[in-house]
Amino acid sequence: MTVTIYDVAREAGVSMATVSRVVNNNPNVKPATRKKVYEAIERLGYRPNAVARGLASKKTTTVGVVIPDISNAIFAEVARGIEDIANMYHYNIILCNADKKKDKEIRVINTLLEKQVDGLLFMGGAVTEDHVGAFKSANVPIVLCATSDDHNVIPSVDINHEAAAYDAVMKLIDQGHRKIAMISGTLQDPSNGYARFQGYKSALESAGIAYDESLVRIGNYRYESGVEAMKYFIELPERPTAVFSATDEMAIGAIHCIQDSGLQVPGDISIISVDNSRMASMVRPQLTAVAQPMYDIGAVSMRLLTKLMKKENVEQSKVVLPHEIVVRQSVGGI
């Protein structure tokens, strides 16, 4: 039979209210009494009913997290930051993979809200009117994680993606490169795509280099699209001397394509990217990349959400974390 709070109270020789205070970490319990209750819980194998507690308190101590691609190491690092802070503040996580598909994102958001989560962290691509509509229907706090909305209305934690791309391309320009190509993400993606593309164009403009649309290929963030884009660049009548990739995975595809073509990195073509995932130091030559503090983005997002859920004072609802270039071996001068 299911062990109840009444059974624990009788076993420990205390009231049910005392057991409830112990289970809910209420500090107003004597240490000796708390020890006695915990011993009774262990002997009986009691498990508090989270559903019943949630109905009573109108809180589930659960946070929903919408993640674009659970197989991507970048998002795994964000999720780890979220999880660590959630544990610190005694929240549980429901992690849902949305495959970077708008319809699935909306469906997952609504499913999590139906499960009465206390708050929601959204990692995804473009925050459309449909997303905003789903968020507005919620009566719980929402924080955008590693993305932001066009009007900066919804609390968010991210880096400045345009500035990160600008710095990456300027690194190539500082090394003497003038014919610089880009492997971009979809331009419908506000951060990994459009913002990084704008940063690329701004850097060229700053250096007085004319923008050439033939030097831009749109990828899908995956290794294979990096390979395909690089094949195209190599076959140009005048190939680029350097390539800026919007993500590490596409950059690594580009590196391998260059090597398979009998060329060298960075001897013939330099490569730089944004992300600085673990893969950046595994490839040879190691990849020079703009580092996003992915763990910190997750951790700060979760901390911001805890403040909103507890109705604490929030001085800054839009947090922009710093980025930096990690120099390795994939960029050389000409």
From TrEMBL:
Domain of life: Bacteria
PROSITE patterns, per database record: HTH_LACI_1, HTH_LACI_2
GO molecular function: DNA-binding transcription factor activity; transcription cis-regulatory region binding
HTH lacI-type domain ranges (all copies): 3-57
Gene3D superfamilies assigned: 3.40.50.2300, lambda repressor-like DNA-binding domains
Keywords: Activator, DNA-binding, Repressor, Transcription, Transcription regulation
Database matches in SMART domains: HTH_LACI
InterPro entries named in the record: CcpA, HTH_LacI, LacI/GalR-like_sensor, Lambda_DNA-bd_dom_sf, Peripla_BP_I
The protein's role, per its UniProt record: Global transcriptional regulator of carbon catabolite repression (CCR) and carbon catabolite activation (CCA), which ensures optimal energy usage under diverse conditions.
Record's protein name: Catabolite control protein A
Organism: Paenibacillus oryzae
